[in-house]
From TrEMBL:
UniProt similarity note: Belongs to the multicopper oxidase family.
Cited CDD domains: CuRO_1_LCC_plant, CuRO_2_LCC_plant, CuRO_3_LCC_plant
EC numbers for this chain: 1.10.3.2
Cofactor: how and how many bound: Binds 4 Cu cations per monomer.
Catalysed transformations (reactions): 4 hydroquinone + O2 = 4 benzosemiquinone + 2 H2O
Top EC class of this enzyme: oxidoreductase
Domain of life: Eukaryota
Protein name: Laccase
Pfam families assigned to the protein according to its UniProt record, in alphabetical order: Cu-oxidase, Cu-oxidase_2, Cu-oxidase_3
Cofactors that this protein relies on: Cu cation
Plastocyanin-like domain location: 39-152, 165-312, 412-546
Length: 563
């Protein structure tokens, strides 16, 4: 039996009705079918209208609803002028990289006029994830939520909310994003920052022509609500808060956490955060607000996006209260918030942290500049891991691996940087060239990996949110300055570290993660700042097959897009 929910997205209250219907849907409905039509639609924001790429004409796109254990089929048909692929961010896609979505990593893109069905199982996961385009900068408008309910009869490990909604944070450019990016690349420079941030596609009433483009959520006094918050912004970590109200964090990246109460959360591009809020303030109207966190000398869109928490029966003429957001460069708030995040680690939801490590990796994160005769300053800004700027292939890496196609990639990505140096010392502005290559790291099946990601002061230090496809990982340690391999591991949290799929490496610091390589395939790892991904701050792991067919990559689907 299949379930079609595309009609759910006409309005907020219709969504609530559809979601309630989903919760009561018979347990045997194990296949969820969706149709994603990639279409261009004219959309107006900030007094500007422009054509944007959408799914089903919606911005943001439709929410995927499923239950743990379900099979999901999403048939995507491309009616736009751009090639397209969709990544189901945070879904592990066990043995099934063909459904993961990053263009030229696990598939070639879907060309104009063609279709492809993403066919995947939701195994051992429940919570909030999201989907987005994974080619060019198309995820500026092509994105949406994934809501995975627990198995039938399984309760949340926190009080049941009265209602819930998705809060998707994004960015908006008045001009065509691909035109801006192409122009910047020709000059070797970054494109302009966005003109606004958005909440559910709307910038909020602080911006011109935006009174009708303000998301509003109605609440009843005394009731508790679940917010599924997603950062779909391309380049900005964001502080998020609600005037007058506490938030209780209960889940990160579709993994339950030890609950804690906070007035503000920090959420990086690619991350999700579930919070409970109680409508326990005097009935009125309150702004939700978000703006960037940036504690390095890097330009960002520093304007504040707002939405409204609206108590029932309060007139819309009441001016909402504005919350106090941390200063954009408030490192202390960012670090202290991240330190509070821990796995729930109960018998039902254990933290299975690898205690023995088979492979130790140390990757340096760097910006750089390579010669470019046609660029404005004779150089092209770039980025690298272990001084390697990743070059995208013209054939999907997973196809090349599965079919043993020679000459597409090498498996010699180094476990350590080529030259040790004082990574976070004074800014380094000379010898900024990087090596170019499609170089991957081969990992034995079921081996345990510890990876330390080290920020560097090549050009400048900066915070970097890193996403690993195909896996969750445990954030066992983090610090400011240079990682000390003789002292820092003794401080690792191996009991209840946070489990997630996207982690921020602090400005001028390091983060250590551990994971078990039990998912065969080719799995992308990259900075989730789109600018840095474009500049080459990415690589991929080739996880070898195990000994049995059940530990090996499944065969590709018949409709896999050709290159």
């Amino acid at each position: 039996m299949a379930m079609q929910l595309d009609s759910c997205f006409g309005s907020f209250f219709l969504c609530i009705f559809c979601f309630a219907w989903f919760l009561t849907f018979p347990a045997e409905a194990a296949v969820r079918k969706y149709q994603f039509d990639i279409r261009v639609k004219n959309v107006s924001r900030l007094c500007h209208a422009k054509p944007i790429v959408t799914v089903n004409g919606r911005f943001p796109g439709p929410t995927i609803y499923a239950r743990e254990g379900d099979r999901v089929l999403v048939k995507l048909t491309n009616y736009a002028k751009y090639n397209i692929s969709i990544h189901w961010h945070g879904l592990k896609q066990f043995r099934n990289g063909w459904a993961d979505g990053p263009a030229y990593i696990t598939q070639c893109p879907i060309k104009t006029g063609h279709s492809y069905t993403y066919d995947f199982n939701v195994t051992g996961q429940r919570g909030t994830l999201w989907w987005h385009a994974h080619i060019l900068w198309l995820r500026a408008t092509v994105y949406g939520a994934i809501v995975i309910m627990p198995k039938e009869g399984t309760m949340f490990p926190f009080p049941k909310p009265h209602r819930e909604t998705e809060i998707i944070l994004g960015e908006w450019w008045n001009s065509d994003v691909e035109t801006l990016v192409n122009g910047a690349n020709k000059m070797g420079l970054p494109p302009p920052t966005s003109d606004a941030h958005t909440i559910n596609g709307k910038p909020g009433s602080l911006f011109p022509c935006s009174l009708k483009h303000t998301f509003s959520m109605e609440v009843e006094a005394g009731k508790t609500y679940l917010l599924r918050i997603i950062n779909a912004a391309l380049n900005d970590e964001l502080f998020f808060t609600i005037a007058g109200h506490n938030m209780t964090v209960v889940e990160i990246d579709a993994v339950y956490t030890k609950p804690f109460t906070t007035r503000v959360i920090l959420i990086a591009p690619g991350q999700t955060t579930n919070v409970l809020i109680k409508a326990d303030q005097p009935p009125s109207r309150y702004f939700m607000a978000a703006r960037p966190f940036m504690d390095a000398p890097v330009p960002v869109d520093n304007k504040t996006v707002t939405a409204i928490l609206h108590y029932k029966d309060i007139p819309k003429t009441v001016i909402p209260s504005m919350p106090k957001l941390p200063a954009p460069n408030n490192t202390n708030v960012a670090l202290s918030y991240n330190k509070r995040l821990k796995s729930l680690n109960t018998p039902q939801f254990p933290a299975k942290v690898p205690l023995k490590v088979d492979r130790h990796l140390f990757y340096t994160i760097g910006l750089g500049a390579n010669p470019c005769s046609s660029c404005q300053n004779g150089t092209q800004l770039t980025a690298s891991l272990n001084n390697i700027t990743f070059v995208m292939p013209k054939v999907g890496l997973l196809q090349a691996h599965y079919f043993n196609i020679k000459g597409v990639f090498k498996t010699d990505f180094p476990d350590q940087p080529p030259v040790p140096f004082n990574y976070t010392g004074a800014p380094l502005t000379a010898n900024l060239g990087t090596s170019l290559g499609t170089r991957l790291s081969k990992v034995a099946f079921n081996s345990t990996v510890e990876l330390v990601l080290q920020d560097t002061n090549l050009l400048t230090v900066e915070s970097h949110p890193f996403h690993l496809h195909g896996f969750n990982f445990f954030v066992v340690g983090s610090g400011i300055g240079n990682f000390n391999p003789s002292k820092d591991p003794a401080k690792f949290n191996l009991v209840d570290p946070l489990e997630r799929n996207t982690v921020g490496v602090p400005t001028g610091g390091w983060t250590a993660i551990r994971f078990r390589a039990d998912n065969p395939g080719v799995w992308f790892m990259h900075c989730h700042l789109e600018l840095h991904t474009m500049w080459g701050l990415k690589m991929a792991f080739v996880v070898e097959n195990g000994k049995s067919p059940e530990e090996s990559i499944i065969p590709p689907p018949m409709d896999l897009p050709p290159c």
